[in-house]
């Protein structure tokens, strides 16, 4: 059969397929037409916004999955995404070091509302934190420019504050659906409360409160449950500890009977493995929830974190 005849025979099929694609594309456009277009800086804020906004929001995360938020560099396509948004949601507290590069785009566009979700949160100052004592053991003062610990989403309590700020921002844009957003927030807030109460009781029953992580990301989680973290690297999960720092970590692990060295996706596994071998511990994965990992949601990752830490302390 000639190619010309085949083309004639299959042309209607291709046309039908293309027509179907067009209809699907139009349907998706119609579905998103009345939704609030929200851009968030980092992954956890995407989950919080979707939990509160439900089917009335379309949420895009500016920092791609698997990219360290501190290392992110906005590109022209990111600016384009921002200009089409109704709401720009950030973590604040220096987490978005690149914010000044997009601020002009956001501030010059009257259609974009920006909300800082750290507003009203109980912030940990680095001046009154154990990290200050730890800095001398690192080869560089990598968090000198940070005034506060930015990892507030790793606190179930502060996640409620962030979600409330998002809820208030959505209501300000779409007051007609206030009850919808309020209800969604109450449901999500209740789940955060339930998880907090479950592990508050568990951690109160253990004597050892100390654990070691790849970097100092869990200060707020520790405060929630009266725990103490020791980070191999600093706030940004980059660089390797000095020999003096490694010696200090070994001594700390042995003194506190550390059985598990927790390692995060963006922290160096090599150092964690070396430390674990030195003190007879094992390495286990823990989530910073900066990215969507293992097809698990925020609550799943947080529960797994808490269960692993709790088990390691028993």
Describe it for me?
By secondary structure, this protein is α/β, with parallel strands linked by helices. It folds into two domains: 33-120 and 154-195, Nitrogenase molybdenum iron protein domain (Rossmann fold); 196-313, Nitrogenase molybdenum iron protein domain (Rossmann fold, 3-Layer(aba) Sandwich), CATH 3.40.50.1980. 50% of the residues lie in helices and 12% in strands. The chain has helices at residues 3-33, 43-53, 76-83, 99-107, 130-134, 156-173, 178-204, 219-225, 243-255, 269-279, 298-313, and strands at residues 36-40, 57-61, 87-90, 113-116, 210-215, 228-233, 260-263, 282-285. The strands form three sheets. Strands 2-1-3-4 form a four-stranded parallel beta sheet, covered by helices on one side. Helix 2 crosses helix 6 (156-173). It is globular and about 55 Å long. Mean pLDDT is 86; it is low at 1-30 and 136-143.
Number of separate strands: 8
Can you tell me the CATH topology of the largest domain? Rossmann fold
Strand order of the largest sheet: 2-1-3-4
**What is the string of helix and strand elements?**
HEHEHEHEHHHEHEHEHEH
User: Please, what is the average pLDDT?
Assistant: 86
**Count of helix runs:** 11
**DSSP helix fraction:** 40-55%
What's the CATH C level of the largest domain?
Answer: Alpha Beta
**Please, what is the oligomeric state?**
single chain
The main sheet comes to: 4 strands, parallel
Q: Structural class of the helices, strands and pairings?
A: alpha/beta
> Radius of gyration over alpha carbons?
23 Å
- Provide the CATH superfamily of the largest domain: Nitrogenase molybdenum iron protein domain
Shape: globular
The proportion of residues in beta strands is 5-15%
Distance between the termini: 74 Å
Uncertain residue ranges: 1-30, 136-143
The number of distinct structural domains comes to: 2
